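Standup notes
- DV: blocked on the single-chain target, sequence here:
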Amino acid sequence: MRSKSTTPEAFRSHTTALSAILAVEAAKHITTREMEVQTPLATTTGREPVTSVFLVPILRAGLGMVEGFHQLLPFAAVVHIGLRRNESTHQPESYYLNFPPSINGAEVLLIDPMLATGGSAIAAIHELQKVGARVAAFACCVACPEGIAALQKAHPAVPIITAACDSHLNENAYIVPGLGDAGDRIFGTVV
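- DV (later): unblocked, structure below
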């Protein structure tokens, strides 16, 4: 994924595969209860979610992670939040919220490939909490210490699931060494 020569098709494929792995770890934070299951040979116990489960990708890059999460959690509904980074201030700006009333009381897995400044994740969690959702975990492909610290300070109860923690943010608030703009790489819009 990190190589600048990786094609958008390969980048999407790797993002899906990595997201399936992250989904396993993120799903551990969903509240479950025991349930009785009848197998062909005997009755046993299994586990099921206590409430509805929603996947919430932060648009647009988060969309690249949905397929991998759906491989493990095919029953999860998907709703969207649109946040973009103001390139001057590096702060998130909301441009789209699509939360149905049924998200109130549900558990959410928030997904976005990058955790850079932490601003988008913090803003998304705040919006989700306002409508009564419980964010069970935030999952990303790459994080950095600054983003992790900011998210943990703002929302200490939200676990962070990541595949890599890179060195730092540069002067433009990009993760170094990072992998570039994940949304551009997923959707093939690299200039």
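- Follow-up: The longest strand covers residues 134-143.
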